[in-house]
């Protein structure tokens, strides 16, 4: 089997293959990742039966962890969206903060809603809110739209149970530290949101938006048909609280079988999904079954991309990459900070090349997985920072080949040029800030 610099070149070639197949030839990421598995396995001269076995092991391994989490998380998201629960949360935050603090308020709305709801659908759902607030408060609609978009984007890449961070954690073996990842992701989100609010306010002032006919605007949501704020918040916050509290209790040395059980991410998010189905009832003419079927449809594409990323990671683990990197690391030619920078750059290149943050996180974490034992990272904070650096890279940057870029442009009324010089710029700042925070925390606490 090939090793040494030639192996690194072949791994690089497999990444370039993924980028070309997805970005240039518009092939689905699942097929691109599977093709890369075979390409890498054959070119490094891996025994042919081992290629398939490695792919199966990687595919099944990641699905055994992330599969149910993604489905249950999608159930919460769909029920919040369809019932009007997400809009209820948004309206309540605006009412609490007041119209004078509309930019921080709508940023917070985005950050909260994007934990269970994908940022694309979250922006479509809430973009009408930005239009109404702009008219009521005399605030720039572009500033509000940018603040909403970047608020959604922040937690989309940093805070589980969003699929990207969940997949990255599963790939690198950090599933046992999900609570730490959530807590640290939330801590990182605060300064990131503050910076994006300032930039959104400053840049958005000079942007003129077009009027958009938004079918999901807040005016078309009948308040009487929405669930109560309590019913909307419980399915969203309870799983996060259970996971976080489980991490804290284990950290202080308390062992309780039942609490360990309900704070397991799969069980906690399942509880949230069941509560969502009980509290967020369909309107007349719709059924719980239909909403559940839609949640399964939403989770499908995420699951197959993530599983294919696991297959790619399985092939990588079967190469001699770990042994080669072990020699490199023990020679003193690199350190942990350099590895963090490398992880960030790989995720950023993948994001910029093929558009999907989730795909970038899946592929980057698959590349990192074989190196974890070599690097000697074994603490919760090390795993959490690895996931957050991947997330930071995966938000750098959103531009013309990212579906979210076009959602923001079309539903905010900003031209593609204005979206590029505002939203794209801010996403670059977001990613670099996450990298800076990660390195700072690593230096101080690891």
What does this structure look like?
The protein has 20 helices and no strands. It is an all-alpha fold and 446 residues long. It has one domain (5-445). Helix 2 (29-43) runs antiparallel to helix 3 (48-83) and helix 7 (141-158) packs across helix 20 (416-445). It is globular. Residues 213-220 have low confidence and may be disordered. This is GntP family permease. Keywords: Membrane, Transmembrane, Transmembrane helix. InterPro entries: Glcn_transporter.
Per DSSP, what share of the residues sits in E-state strands of 2 or more residues?
A: under 5%
N- to C-terminal separation?
Answer: 36 Å
Which blocks of ≥5 consecutive residues have pLDDT under 50? 213-220
Count the E strands.
0
State mean pLDDT (0 to 100 scale). 85
- Residue share in helices? over 70%
Total domains:
1
Number of helical segments?
20
SSE string, helices as H and strands as E: HHHHHHHHHHHHHHHHHHHH
Indicate the overall shape. globular
* Largest sheet report: none
Radius of gyration: 22 Å
Helix/sheet category: mainly alpha
